[in-house]
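Predict structure. Input: HTH-type transcriptional regulator NimR, 266 residues.
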Amino acid sequence: MPSYLIRPDLVTSPEGPYLAAAELTQSEARATASHSHARGQLMGALSGLISVGLDKQQWVVPAIHAIWIPPHCVHSVRSYGPFSGWSVFIAEERCAPLPREPRAIRTAPLLREAVRRAATWPGIELDEAQTRIADVIVDELAAAKEESLGLPSPEDPRLVRITDALASDLSDNRRLEEWAAWAGVAPRTLSRRFVAETGLTFAQWRQQARLLRALELVADGLPVTTIALELGYDNVSAFIDMFRRVMGTTPGRYATAANPDDRAVI
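Output follows.
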C-alpha cells in the first residue's frame, strides 16, 4: 500500500483549504515517478538532500532550499539517504501571483516556521489565523530570490556523450578541446552547441555539475577534503573558493546553516 506524504485529496482536489502542508522524515532513500497535479507545490529540505526532475533538467534541493513546481508541471522526486523536509500544496486559483516556471529558492526562517505551523493543520477550511499564516507562505514564495540549482541537459548526442561521461566522473579535468576530440566534434562547434542547448558554456556546465554534486556530498556529511578530491579540484582551497563564490558561504558554514533547529517564531 503506498505511503502518502499528505492526503491525496489535498493535492488533487480544488476543494478544501487553499493551502495544505506536510512534513516528512525518513531514514532511507525514496523515489517518486514522474507525475503532476493541479495544485502548485513548494518542496523544501530541512536536512539531507533531494533532487527533482523537471523537463530536461535535474534540480537539486539541498537543506534550507526549496523548489517551486507550478500547477500541472510534470516532475519526479528522489531523495538521497536520510532526509527531512516538507511540501506545501497551493490551490491553482491562488497561484496567479506566483512564478509560472519552476524556481529554486533559499528559504528564510520565517517561511520555514510558517510551513511548520501549517503542517499541523487538519486539512479543513482555514480559519482567520490560519489564513494569515497561509498568506505569509505565499507572500514569502512570491518575493523569494531565485537560486541556480538546476542542471540543463543537451540534446545533441555528441554533447550527451560528454555530459554523461562527466556526470559519472566529475574529477575528469580534460579541457574542452580534449573532450571535443574524444566525442568527434570540432571544439568551436562543441562550444557553440553547449551554449545553444544549455544556456551555459562548457566550463559553466561542468562547474554547475560539480556544485550540485558537492551539495549532495555536503548533505551526506563527507569531509571537505574528500569532496574536493572527488570533484577534481587540485586543492581544498580552490574548491572552497568556488563554493563560496557561488553559494555565498563556505561548505562548513553551509552545513551548519542547514540545521533545522534554526527557527523563527511566528
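The chain is about 40% helix and 25% strand.
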